[in-house]
Amino acid sequence: MYKVRLWSVKHSRGMERLYHATNPLVLGLMRGLTRLFGHRLDRPITALEAGVKGFLFDCKMCGDCALSKTGMSCPMNCPKTIRNGPCGGVRENGMCEVKPEMRCVWVAAWDGASRMQHGDAIKNVNFAVDHRRKGTSSWLKLAREDSDAAA
Amino acid sequence: MLRPEEAGLNPGDPLPILPGHVSGGRFERVLRAGHFAITTEIAPPDSADPDEVLRRAHLFDGHVDAINATDGSGAHCHMSSLAVCAILTRVGYSPIIQISCRDRNRIAIQGDVLGAAALRVGNVLCLSGDDVSVGDHPEAKPVFDFDSVTLLQTIRTLRDESRFLSGRKLDLPPQMFLGASINPFAPPYANRVDQFAKKVAAGAEFVQSQYCFDLAMARDFMARARDLGLTERCFTLMGVGVLASAKTAKWLRSAIPGVHIPDEVIRRLEQAEKPKAEGRRIAVELMQQLAEIEGINGIHLMAFKQEEFVGEIVKASGVLGSRKPWAPEFPLVPTPSK
Fold it and tell me: E strands, B217-328, where?
């Protein structure tokens, strides 16, 4: 929801704290569930992630979550799905050139990042998304990447 | 009309790549030699006629160092940038191919970059691109597989690592001078310089800006770019526009997001007896004042529908001193269009 999304960016510092507090738990849980159930719970887990992040950030489930690096503003809400924004067309009032009723996702991102402890991560280049991952869970991806790396 | 093949030379052949250079083009040479440079924009025709491209380019002979060929600007259909560039290199011009991420995915773009380099195009400008909704085919599917920053990174990978993103090796990498756009005149103002830094980190060796009508903002932006050391790593060409009237200025300001024109400029045009001449005078003054700012290496002069005045404006500004940019030795001047 647009209003909740703006609220999340406004409270990016709190969201960052929440992320750092819950991330190890979430990933640990994902790893445990993967060990126990293999891929059998992927669908409900993905649905849960889509629900939670969809509510808070209007998450589009790109499968390559960048929220912690983009000031808690989901870049996939940009009509051009720019991953390193903003583009040059931002309106004088900070609104999107394509959707004048929406605050530019990247104006929000830099604003959100300015309040975050590790906000400078927004200055690193984010490579283009892997379109095969669309609709898949970033939580599971991270958990499995970690365990693959550990193995 | 005499074709280069008939004249017994190929003026478009690349020059030897000098040490520390990345391309065989004249544009990079001019900048790296420390000269103040001028670039301009050619409007690709709504036509399949190559002579029309040459007719439009001929207006700039001896006045500019490189010519940007736009890529479906404003999401409107025109002759492709790649084709315009290929026609221009045959005569020896230094075109800058513009690549927008709107219409092509990573497979098409990497192929086009190799093709452009094979056709002797030595410069590329990486853009995200205007959204399809503002163009004449709003029903088209927007692609945006890349953004301008990842596009820069990709072309740098092709060039410097001699491979596709997939890892597959190239037999000959594309030797191109890498460019990007900046817009210091749109929000988020404080972070525009950070965005510039990101583009430099991703590979930008020159940048061209959106229209600059606000010197104070340009000065402030350049001061911050200097503080971050960007002006040492990247050449900056500030965009200057030629306004035909107060009406055009107001239209640009309201219809094209990201264009900032102060009221003062509009007032000047309104009060002028000859607004078209006043628009050119404003461009001349801006060029002179921008050239004074430390870290600005050139001007990108955008004279949409006023291309015939580019030479006059450049001369009046005096920013090139006594230097005269390259012009074809055997100009191909097609007969005027009917």
Answer: 235-241, 296-302
H, E, C per residue of A104-121 = CHHHHHHHHHHCCCCHHH
Cα distance between residue B171 and residue B31, in whole Å: 29
Question: Selecting from 2.30.30.40, 3.20.20.220, 3.40.50.300, 3.40.50.2300, what CATH number does the domain B10-242+293-317 have?
Answer: 3.20.20.220
Residues from chain B that touch A92, judged by Cβ atoms under 8 A, are 186-187, 260
For chain B, what are the domain ranges? 10-242+293-317
Q: Encode pLDDT of B214-259 as tens digits.
A: 999 999 999 999 999 999 999 999 999 999 999 999 999 998 889 9
CA B338 to CA B327: how far, in whole Å? 25
Contact B205, B276 (CB under 8 A): no
Residues A76-102, buried b or exposed e (16+ Cβ, 10 A)? bbbbbbbbbbbbbbbbeebbbbbeeeb
Strand partners, B67: B40, B95
The pLDDT confidence band at residue B22, using thresholds 50, 70 and 90, is: very high
Q: Do A92 and B260 touch (CB under 8 A)?
A: yes
Cβ-count burial A138-149 (b if 16+ within 10 Å, e if not): bbbbbbbeeeee
Residue B127 · residue B98 · CB < 8 Å? yes
Alpha-carbon gap: B52 to the closest alpha carbon of chain A (Å): 30
End-to-end CA distance of chain A: 39
d(CA B165, CA A99): 32
Q: Which A positions 16-55 lie with beta carbon below 8 A of chain B?
A: none
Is B195 an interface residue toward A (CB < 8 Å)?
A: yes
The whole-angstrom separation of Cα B26 and Cα B16 is 10
Q: Which residues of A fall within a CB distance of 8 Å from B252?
A: none
Nearest to B147 among A84, A98, A131 (CB): A84
Assess contact for A125 and B198: CB atoms under 8 A.
yes
> For residue B207, how many other CB atoms are within 10 A of its CB?
24
Handedness of CA B203, B205, B209, B215 (dihedral sign): positive
> Are the beta carbons of A82 and B128 separated by less than 8 Å?
yes
Q: How confident is the model at residue B86 (pLDDT cuts 50, 70, 90)?
A: very high
The CB density around residue B101, as the number of other CB atoms within 10 Å, is: 28
pLDDT digits 0-9 by tens, A91-118: 999 999 999 999 999 999 999 999 999 9
- Complex prediction ipTM: 0.95
Burial of A2 (0-12, 13-18, 19+ CB in 10 A): exposed
- For A69-78, write each residue's pLDDT tens digit: 999 999 999 9
